[in-house]
Amino acid sequence: MLQAFLVILQRDLILAIRHRAELMNPVLFFVLVVVLFPLGVGAEISILQKIAPGIIWIAALLSALLSLDRIFRTDMEDGSLEQMLISAQPMSLLILAKIIAHWMITGLPVVLVGPLLALFLGLSTEGIETLFITLLLGTPILSAIGSVGVALTVGLRRGGVILSLLVLPLYVPVLIFASQAVDASAAGFATTAPVAMLSALLLLALSLTPWAASSALKMSVS
Amino acid sequence: MFKSLPAYTKSKVLAVKELAIEKSDRWLFQNVSFELSPKEVLHLEGENGSGKTTLLRALCGLTIADKGDVYWNDVSIHQQPYDYHLQLSYVGHSDGIKQDLTVLENLRVAMVLSRSIYKVSDKKIMREILENIGLKNKEDTLAFHLSAGQRRRLAFARCLLNDSALWILDEPLTALDVKGVSFIEQAIQAHIERGGLAVITSHQPLNIKNVRCTRLNLSAVA
Fold first, then answer.
1. Which residues of A touch B105 (CB under 8 A)?
2. How far apart are the C-alpha atoms of B181 and B183, rounded to whole Å?
3. Model ipTM?
4. Nearest Cα to Cα of residue B165 among B58, B93, B72
5. Which residues contact B44 (CB under 8 A, 6 or more apart)?
6. Please, is B205 exposed, middle or buried when counting C-beta atoms within 10 Å of its C-beta (0-12, 13-18, 19+)?
7. Which of B174, B170, B209, B169 is CA-nearest to residue B192?
């Protein structure tokens, strides 16, 4: 079972590396959105400082949304998904591997670049530290919840709009707790509560979404 | 090349009872019933759009039937998904081959998914399999660079990777040259002689000797 998990993880990572242009897309989008904000809002550091956590988290949310479709879409098109569904391995385990692969491809770059951009926006050191932690805890939740949304819409010819409508409301708690944590730490308050909530959400998402996505895929494929 | 393999130990009876599937408000087919014992082939016939592929997908458990059910060893396949999937090899219309993976990488994923009896690390076995399917010295070629016929052979290799007693093949002979056709016919023959079952759709006549081959015409049942 562990071997199946690792082979699928490795497979998705190899596929991503062989599509380098697509690999860069989400993180490039993330950087562009954040960089455009000072141009639009003005370079007043006190304003930027105040809205930095919100900007970065919203950009992370949108860039995750942008890349969600590829968790299952190409596998659906070439029949790989069918083979996974009728394989002798538990589908939820394979989906967990795909979620983690998706996070490593799209979430991890955002986690690494996010703090750097926060520095440009003038966030304090404590704020940047908390931002890093919230991104680390929060971006896997985005991939996990997204996998259910994609699993539900992958059978539709044009599921893009429905996917955003379906997934964005579920992202809202992550956005609220994460930006709350960063705001609190920048203001010098304790961040234990929102960070603990994020950790709980992460565990919940990773343990439940593979099952939900697996059931949804069985419906989408039939 | 197929002679030396031992007989299947878990070959059972596949039974379909009063299967009916609806598609966009009309019955694609109704009252499809048959029983297939070890060492038998079922050749599905029917016009384009008569539901051959849908029936095959229902046999795999990918499509849920609106009426009736599929039984393996007298138990519904939906009650024993893992035991059934372990006995099943399916080569469908979309071949489940990743274009951006090499031949060997594709095989490796297929082997893990089917819990193959062979070890991925066993170079000798892998070379033998590749030689059998006519893709010798192609292990590091991207599937993208294979011809349609070669890709078909690679997809068919899935049937040879584990000890599955039931082969479900959707148009296995399309895009194949004379040698490829005879290779697949030989493989099916050896499979049947080992006590296996096969359900096949094909517009071309199948040339398999000394095998009980039942024909089922779906256009007639509709």
1. 11, 14
2. 5
3. 0.88
4. B72
5. B52, B55, B56, B199, B200, B201, B216, B218
6. exposed
7. B209
Phi-psi region of A148 (alpha: psi -120 to 50; beta: other; left: phi over 0): alpha
CA-nearest residue to B101 within chain A is A15
Of A14, A18, A86, the CB nearest to B60: A86
Tokens linked to B160: 């040879």
**CB-based contact (8 Å) between A168 and chain B?**
no
How far, in Å, CA of A95 to CA of B154, rounded? 24
Q: CA torsion B52→B19→B21→B46, rounded to 10°?
A: 20
Q: What are phi and psi of A83, to 5 degrees?
A: -65, -35
Alpha carbon distance A148, B195 (integer Å): 41
- For B43-102, the pLDDT digits (tens) are 988 888 888 889 999 999 898 888 889 999 889 998 988 889 988 999 988 888 898 999
Which is nearest to B52 in space by CA: B35, B36, B28, B33?
B28
Residues of chain B scoring pLDDT < 70: 1-4, 221-222
Amino acid at B91: V
Residues A152/A123, Cβ–Cβ less than 8 Å: no
The residue extents of the domains of chain A are 2-221
pLDDT score at A5 = 93
pLDDT at residue B2, rounded to an integer:
62
Nearest CB partner across the interface for A83, out of B96, B99, B100: B96
In chain A the first and final C-alpha atoms are separated, in Å, by 25
Q: pLDDT tens for residues A25-72? A: 899 999 999 999 999 988 888 888 888 999 999 999 999 998 898 899
